[in-house]
Write a structure and sequence with these properties.
The structure holds two protein chains of two kinds. By secondary structure, chain A is α/β, with parallel strands linked by helices. Chain A contains ten helices and twelve strands. In chain A, the strands form three sheets. Chain A has a six-stranded mixed sheet with strand order 6-9-10-3-11-12, sandwiched between helices. In chain A, strands 2-1-4-5 form a four-stranded antiparallel sheet, with helices on one face. Chain B is α/β, with parallel strands linked by helices. Chain B has two domains: 271 residues, no CATH class; 55 residues, no CATH class. A ten-stranded mixed sheet of chain B has the order 2-1-5-7-9-11-13-15-17-19, covered by helices on one side. Chain B has a nine-stranded mixed sheet with strand order 3-4-6-8-10-12-14-16-18. In chain B, helix 2 packs antiparallel against helix 7, helix 8 crosses helix 9 and helix 9 packs antiparallel against helix 10. Chain B has ten helices and 19 strands. Classes of the chains: A alpha/beta, B alpha/beta. Chains A and B meet through helix 2, strand 7 and helix 3 of A and helix 8 and helix 9 of B.
């Protein structure tokens, strides 16, 4: 059974159609990249998978391990193993990052019928993962993402992913706003989490990120559906030729 | 235009009858009481056409006036032992008032720190105490009617004196327990004088029996001399049928530090009035508060911060969380007098609405008569941010828990400023308990 199966997904926001019959299958152990121009529906796909309420699914199915997730609340999806690394991680003043991480981890464990982590256990995990991402513990005592630079926010997303150990990780333009050093730290963090049991959907506008997180499959998204699928070389092709040809193809197919 | 005289309503008639019956028996200060009652008589209970009481129409909210509380019985005293438990861990000196009367057997008057003097207000009034004679009714002159009523009927309370240079490290906890079970009116009045360079921390808890129909009018006059450092915290968690009106009148001298926090979590109707004045230069004050309201609770915080002299700084931060059909009011007025140059005052009041049926009223006012000042205010009212909620939920945190985290963060911004760690934690706990009860 595939880890993620999206069938004929149609999504609207405020009556505007964004996704128009998107199909996608991600198996365990795979990293699939979704590339596309601005407005093609990349971020919409990411948010729909995580369960954002404003997006209305008008048709289609999203199955995780064969189970329909569209009826689930965002927190239930997270407990089932869906993780979205946000393009714009939000600042939450007054909620210490440490409190947030612990609350999230224990809420997921509780929902899965697992015991809550003890404080020393939790601290050990945080220290270990934060160290790998060059995040110092002082940052974690501050409000979530408050006063963090763009790069720190993205690293904080990867830290959350490392602690929550999702089954399906969706990375929404994780490369945006990162310089090359930060990009490497983030990519290394993702690569460490690659495993035969876990799948990734890496959404990006540029091929650059895919030099560091090398995908198994690359899709091109245009006008709300996948218009081309290929191997990692497709990313390089796009870098050379741009998206214009696919936009025309999508129009022709309508 | 001829002055209109309102028909006296039931509560006003009952107050007049109470006055006739009680005036000969109340302890001391007869001329002062008589003048105060006359003030009340002339204007009656404050109502919505009085600007300061626009949102808290006491005339409408007070259907009747309760009889003056009788001395508490053993059961009321027994219940009072539990009052103020929220602050059990801060190692404070407890002074307990049961239905408005000082209860020495429940209070700790042993090993008073050097420079600290404490006596019951009733005793001070009856014995024409020098400190009371000098300051009572004079710390912050106001013609506010709630204060006038308090002055007319004031029964017991406390008179505290902290001598110059004395550092009273142990918090003094005034526990006002309305722990009786019959309808009653309580009028408590306290006077605290902190002399030059002294340090003190005053905590007030106001609690009462759930379901009991009572009215509490409490007032505290606080005189803070030059170079003193005073923290004041008032926690109101009266019973669910209670009407609570409180007035803090403070005058703060030069180069002093003054912090006050009003935490409001109980009572059917609560009106917290703060009348504060800087009378010496170079003073810094933090004035904060938080109200957590549910059901049909009505809470009004009305602040007057009078920058009467130059070079003082004040920061006002008030947070209100409103659930169900509750109503929260914040009226904050900063006055900067003509000579109060270099005043630095910033006021913020924020309301978080958890229900479509809740109502928040925000009325910030700046009255600035000096030209070289930095003053500002910000007021907001809104519901929880959907994007923040989504972020938390996307990480696996259930909706109710995500809301609780955000509400705690919202209130926390005001509470974090409390310097005393034990008190800060106690209030954070109280917020958590409130959220837990909300479900």
């Amino acid at each position: 059974m595939p880890l993620l199966e999206i069938k004929n997904l149609h999504v609207e926001i405020d009556g505007k159609k964004i996704l128009n019959g998107l199909d996608l299958v991600v198996n365990k152990g795979e990293v699939q990249a979704i590339m596309g121009p601005n407005g093609s529906g990349k971020s919409t796909l990411a948010h729909v998978l995580a369960g954002k309420a404003e997006y209305e699914v008008t048709e289609g199915e999203v199955l995780l391990d064969g189970e329909n997730v569209l009826e689930m609340q965002p927190d239930e999806r997270a407990a089932k193993g869906v993780f979205l690394a946000f393009q714009y991680p939000i600042e939450i003043p007054g909620v210490a990052t440490m409190t947030f991480l612990r609350t999230a981890l224990n809420a997921q464990r509780k929902k899965r019928g697992e015991a809550e982590l003890t404080t020393p256990d939790f601290m050990k995990r945080v220290r270990e993962q934060a160290g790998k991402l060059a995040i110092n513990m002082d940052m974690l005592r501050r409000g979530v993402n408050v006063g963090f630079s763009g790069g720190e926010k993205k690293r904080n997303e990867i830290l959350q992913m490392a602690l929550l150990e999702p089954r399906l990780a969706v990375l929404d333009e994780t490369d945006s706003g990162l310089d090359i050093d930060a990009l490497k730290i983030v990519a290394d963090g993702v690569n460490r989490l690659r495993s035969p049991e876990r799948g990734f959907v890496v959404i990006t506008h540029y091929q650059r990120l895919l030099d560091y997180i090398v995908p198994d499959i690359v899709h091109v998204l245009s006008k709300g559906r996948i218009v081309k699928t290929g191997g990692k070389e497709l990313a390089h092709e796009l870098e050379a030729s741009g998206y214009a040809q696919f936009q025309e193809a999508a129009v022709a197919a309508e | 235009m001829a002055e209109l005289t309102l028909m006296k309503n039931t509560a006003e008639q009952q107050l007049a009858a109470e006055w006739q019956a009680a005036k000969g028996k109340l302890p001391g200060a007869a001329p002062m009481r008589a003048a105060a009652f006359e003030r009340f008589s002339a204007v009656g209970l404050p109502h919505r056409r009085i600007e300061e009481w626009k949102y808290t129409d006491l005339r409408a909210l007070m259907r009747d006036a309760k009889p003056l509380a009788i001395p508490p019985d053993a059961a009321a005293k027994a219940r009072a032992k539990e009052a103020g438990a929220l602050l059990a861990d801060i190692g404070s000196r407890r002074l307990v008032f049961v239905d408005g009367a000082f209860a020495p057997e429940l209070s700790d008057l042993t090993k008073l720190e050097t420079g600290l003097a404490i006596r019951p207000m009733a005793q001070a009034l009856a014995g024409s105490d020098a400190l009371a004679t000098k300051h009572l009714g004079k710390v912050f002159a106001t013609d506010d009617v709630a204060v006038a009523l308090n002055t007319a009927f004031m029964g017991d309370g406390v008179v505290i004196h902290v001598a110059a240079g004395a550092a009273v490290e142990r918090p003094i906890h005034l526990v006002f327990a309305a722990s009786g079970d019959k309808p009653a009116a309580l009028f408590t009045r306290s006077l605290i004088v902190i002399e030059k360079g002294a340090r003190a921390m005053i905590v007030e808890s106001h609690e009462g029996t759930e379901g009991r129909d009572y009215q509490s009018n409490t007032a505290l006059e606080l005189k803070v001399a030059d170079d003193a450092h005073v923290d004041h915290i008032k926690i109101t968690r009266e019973g669910d049928k209670a009407l609570h009106v409180s007035s803090l009148m403070a005058d703060v001298g030069a180069h002093a530090r003054f912090n006050t926090f009003v935490f409001n979590i109980g009572g059917a109707v609560a009106r917290n009035q703060l009348f504060l004045r800087f009378s010496g230069e170079g003073t810094v004050a933090n004035i904060r508060g938080a109200s957590l309201l549910k059901g049909r609770q009505h809470a009004d915080t009305t602040l007057v911060m009078d920058h009467a002299v130059a070079n003082c700084q004040s920061r006002e931060v008030f947070k209100t969380v409103l659930d169900d059909e509750s109503r929260g009011i914040f009226q904050g007025k900063i006055i900067v007098r003509p000579h109060a140059q270099k005043t630095d005052a910033k006021m913020a009041s924020h309301a978080l609405l958890l229900s479509e049926d809740a109502e928040a009223d925000n009325k910030p006012e700046l009255e600035i008569y000096a030209d070289d000042v930095q003053c500002g205010h910000g007021a907001t009212a809104g519901d929880l941010d959907e994007d923040l909620l989504f972020y938390l939920k996307a990480r696996g945190i259930p909706h109710a828990e995500a809301e609780a985290l955000l509400i705690q963060a919202f209130v926390g911004e005001a509470i974090e400023g409390i310097e005393h760690a034990g008190l800060r934690e106690a209030l954070i706990e109280a917020v958590a308990a409130w959220l837990k009860a909300r479900g």
